[in-house]
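Aim 2, interim progress: modelling of the adenosine monophosphate-bound target.
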Amino acid sequence: MLAIFNTLTRAKENFQALKANQVGFYVCGVTVYDYCHLGHARTYTSMDVILRYLRWSGYQVRYVRNITDIDDKIIKRANENGENYNELTSRFIKAMHEDFAALGLLAPNDEPRATDYIPQMINLIQTMIAKQYAYLASNGDVCFEVRSFKDYGCLSHHDIEQLESGARVEVSDVKRDPLDFVLWKLAKPGEPAWDSPWGKGRPGWHIECSAMSMALLGEQFDIHAGGRDLIFPHHENEIAQSQACTDKKFANFWMHAGFLQIEKEKMSKSLGNFVTIRDILREHSPEVVRYFLIANHYRSPLMYTADVMQQSKQALARFYTALRFLSAADPIENTDFEMQFKTAMDDDFNTPVALSALFELAHEIQRLRDKGEEERAARHGALLKELGGVLGILQTDPNAFFQTGHEVNAEKINVLITARQQARQERNWAEADRIRQELTEMKVVIEDGAAGTTWKYVG
Ligand code: AMP
Ligand code: ZN
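Predicted structure of the complex, ligand included:
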């Protein structure tokens, strides 16, 4: 039985879908004013693995990941660049799609953009005003009155008094309470604006996710997720808005990914210390990046260093060594390896433990091969590939894994290997050894086997 750690209750709870076998899964998406960084990759790869595992377990999942295509940071950056806000967002949406595809993230079923859901947001705000959860402030903004919502703090586990004293909320004489947050912001001249009953303006950040998730998944759905910085205030405010409108529990499970850090600081666009996904993919293959991201549990913080990338590559090399030279076969069924993998993943998607089950499986393949049990080795190999696929790894051809890398010149290597074979045929051992030495210096290991000569890059 799948258990998921729910931020709402701070406990692992057995997962029960609201509708049998159907899961509504909403993840807060990117604010598109710059290139996506490794921190985004951390959160969205974690969610990608969760999505793949739910589907592999038999659930029909509707996966929604929105795009925040209007907010203060977008407007500021567009002004700095002297471009229209939607030119800026279109460029970075395109870049995000390229980066996410390169990382092998499955496309969401729906990818709603905030600016396409303004009428739904206005509807929700009108309901909140009618039910006296929201008010028109003296500066023309519409604000949510936090103290009117009795469960405020249920997700972040703070009571209002604590939040009031701890929060860095700006002092404002227009809000009734400093914790109140903006639902609709009156536009300043020249800012992008939409018509509303409260004049031309734009939505506050939090309301967009209540509107998009409820429009696509219904007033109640199964899982709502994001990085852990979103617990407060974003998700806390989403709960307040949504439940104020519907009087129903909003999302059942709240899941939050731990932060990717760089030199102990969180990696973020606003801190300017970020490594973009495209930067990292110039140095490492997408699979190495994914391995690095899933080798720790999704809720733990994750530190990015050059060493750990090297270790990820070595770990994958161990798997691909086991998968090399196996013939095609159907996966073996009902093994302890698969059971251990499932048990780990059912325990709040424990990928590090699931990976250790896969390492056991890789060892078994080697043992079977050593015993000459080629067919059983092949069937275990097929299982390793299937379970690896649930984590989004091990789908590369093993030879291609060993023969690619930005430093590898495959053409030159093949020319040298052919020249070496020629030298051997001519019994020119000195020349054959010289070529082998040249290949060794290029960090290429050649393996002469029954099926001919193959090579791998070991840099
Ligand atoms: P943003 O583009 O800043 O709105 O963030 C989009 C998503 O990425 C949110 O769920 C954030 O929590 C997540 N995120 C941003 N930075 C990091 C990071 N350093 N580590 C993990 N997740 C992050
Ligand atoms: Zn959101």
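DSSP finds 16 helices and 15 strands in the chain. Residues 288 and 313 are 5 Å apart (CA to CA).
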